[in-house]
Amino acid sequence: MMRYSLSILFFALVSLPQSFAIGGPTCLSFTSTQYAIATESNPATIWIDSSDWPGVHRAALDLQNDLEKVTGKRPSILNITLSSNGPTISDLNRQTGSRSSSSSIPIIIGTLGRSNLINLAQQSSTNLKPKLTAIQGKWEAGVSEVIKNPISGVTAAYVIVGADKRGTIYGIYDFLEQAGVSPWYWWADVPYKPHSKIYALPNASCSHGSPSVKYRGIFLNDEQPALTDWVIEKFSNGTSASRPPFNRFFYSKVFELLLRLKANYLWPTMWNSAFGVDDPLNQFTADYYGIVMSTSHQEPMLRSSPVEWYQFGSGQWNWDHNRENLTKFWTDGVKRGSPYESVYTLGMRGTGDLPLDESGNIDLLQRVVAGQREIITSVFNKNASEVPQVWCLYKEVQGYYERGMRVPDDVTLLWTDDNWGNIRRLPTAEERSRSGGSGVYYHFDYVGDPRDYKWGNSHSLSKFHHQLELAKNYGADRIWIVNVGDLKPHEISIDFFMTYAWNTTLWTKNDLDKYRKQWALREFGSDSLASGIADIVKRYSLLNIRAKPELINSTMYSLTSYREAEGVMKEWDTLVAQSTEVTKKLSSDYYAAYFQLVHWPVIAGRTTQAMYIDAGYNQLYASQARSQTNVKADSVEKLFEYDADIRDQYHALLNGKWNHMASQTHLGYYYWQQPMLDTMPSITRVQKRQVALPGPMRLTIEDSKGAWPGDNSNQCAQGYNCPPPTVMPLTPFSPSQSRYFEVSAGGPQAFSWTAAANVGWLRLSQTSGNIQDASSGQRVSMSVDWSAVAAGSAPTGVVTLKASSGQSTTVTLVANRTTVPSEYHGFVESEGLVSIQTEHYSRSTAVGGVSWEVLPDYGRNLSAVSPAIQVDSRWQAGAGPLLEYDFYSFNSKGGNITVTVYSAPTMNTYPGHPITYAIAVDGGAPITVQPMPADATNGNLPAAWKGFVAEEIVRTVTTHAANPGKHTLKLYATEVGFVTEKIVIETAAGATQYSYLGPWESVIV
User: Fold this and answer.
1) Which of 307, 520, 933, 1000 could pair with 735 in a Cys bridge, judged by C-beta atoms 3.0 to 4.6 Å apart?
2) Which helix (H) or strand (E) segment is 370 a member of?
3) For 790-846, what is each residue's pLDDT tens digit?
4) DSSP code for 815
């Protein structure tokens, strides 16, 4: 009997220090066991049959070359030739020689039904035969473990056998990953981990069944400027051509990476290239490696469009008016691809990735598909249903489907995300029974509304894990393809995408930290640094997912409220410091890899956000007549140049190996399209030789854009002759137990200042200071000694500020000592708000075994919650799984409160059942809310979608009756797939100030 279930790819997640592989069991050790594979005196030996697949032989050469780099000794390969008609042990012995003196076991590689060596082993070994029988006919399954007596005369061997050629190839690369060879050894320059000895663990199996997703691949897209310019420099071989040299030499690197990641599927570059034409050996090479080729959603029948059509086509790109020429064009594409493993894209879009027909002519598209099927039948001389085909329901094509267009049952339906990581549609119960199944086209890169995003790695593992988990549970698992743009710098996102597609059962929402740590250990080899590196990767992803770098502007993060902008910068600065410390501790051999995979994303992300935030401060300070305006202008200019410096640093790595790969423009967007040249954010300057009209002292306060003394439009509604400033009140339940004011220069004149409070309970962090030059500024924190304030009282304290220049003004603070009953537990209002991170619920109630679940690190702050995925579950308002949040309020808006729910921009994935939630307060009737409006006509997204995905959030507001006191907010699930991160309850009109991330979370008692 097999010791594993073929429905599960691996036994369990094992994390042992002797292996560097991510997930799956461990079968290798670098400390002695009874099964030596390579030692200092005996290099490894590899047995393979000459009859096996060429791609398996090629992978065996990788095994030989990589093990040499790991162990320092080159393994020998025995290329065994046995008769296909009854191979015998004596034939084998003549070729392998005596093995009695060997202290190591061979690595035996082969493919069922192809390798005569494996056929012989299957016949002669009672230990191996049942294992091979169990994987027979299973897509990409394989056996990988120590087998005793696998062949007569062989005491033991490490056997790698695949049910098909990729099953064997994956076994080889899994072995190498365990031995210390990262899949990214070339694409990210991850060093080999040297070990002079490699042993196999007894009683351990690394065998695997069929993967969770059948076709798993990437789409190289939007490949200009970075990838294209890099390819021109690295793969032109001194020649010039009308198109970039996306040739077999380039693609060989891609194919190998995909196989090492256990992927098998590729949509090649297409905007200024033609895979089947630019190098006539491209398709052959893909098949030789074992990669299944296809073409993107807009490129039917394995032909690059529009490039090949412009080169070889004739007439209009119009089926009704040019059917004969299109038929010939597509027939040639199918003939060209017919010798190789391919998936044929059906349908037809307009040239330039645009709709074919604005009116949505379904009849036209159905005629196109029927014609394409006829071509496939004719070329292959068999029913088209026997040839893999896919119909991608991208943008308006989904609209055709929703309005009734259908394709034959054997064609895979490829559902898509909205280009921003939110899957638009999941299969219905009826669609899940289709023989062709369905899949998902996902995006890590996109060109289009509301903004191109092609620079940096701004993806959340938590988000796309949840989206893909939904897809898998709803049966969209025939094809997973992800648009990766230039491939770099999406390494870790691609890595996890393929890891998860290989075995979705292995990685739950709670395993993502474990994945990151195993990834860091595999890439950098340091157990002591792995956790820290994993945390850095997680946190830079969180900071980037809040708003993609291409969307950052100078006022996105509030410069005045909730200390938001400065809080963001503190997070980035901490991250840069931690990443820099890692660079000091890592071996220099790892610097290039660490810079590409971790450090560059950190310093580049920090630089971009700091540049825009300082540009915002520059404009704000100018309006406040602060001389620090010029300091921020200088900072923006320096950061703009540093952005180019770190780009150049990336390009200089390893003598320019990755020149051009960080050249994507990303600063200064004027509309959705990428800027043609990076442009610095706008800055202004104030006259450095002039003193502000009210004098040299400038006073500014927290939560206000105003400045004193003198006039400022933000001081009061009138804008002049305004009273001295008053800061927001403090309560014992304020999330921040201080308020601040800042003293700064309004010109070149130096001055000193003093500050004094008129009451003993008002404490100041500083009571005097000196502003010695125009760049100086000092912050004074005001806090309250609550023991000196009577419960229930709200006294006023006044700080008098005097400058040596003769100026004086005051700052007022109210200390509102609110109280709650001693027995109360829950959130407490402060400043008219209760702000809640949704994972901090008071109680959770399951319904029918389904409860809300926390999605760690999802979204823009801490985490999110979502109903557990139970397919086709839905509930009436007030009847579904429930989260309750207790809160205590001191105010109301005439007996009412407003509740804002911050939810993810999840699409309405199930026809007739939009994503909704229900909400109530206390015993009030639940209100059903639909965050994402229904799609517009012809498959277009709703108008509000652009704003939602740009901010990665949807804010929905409801009103509820609630007087001051204790209350319970109730959040009910109504549909699977709804995700929410934050809830803000406003009890006083206008209490919520502008901020991008929302108010600080309220105090819980």
Assistant:
1) 1000
2) helix 362-380
3) 999 999 999 999 999 999 999 999 999 999 999 999 999 999 999 999 999 999 999
4) B
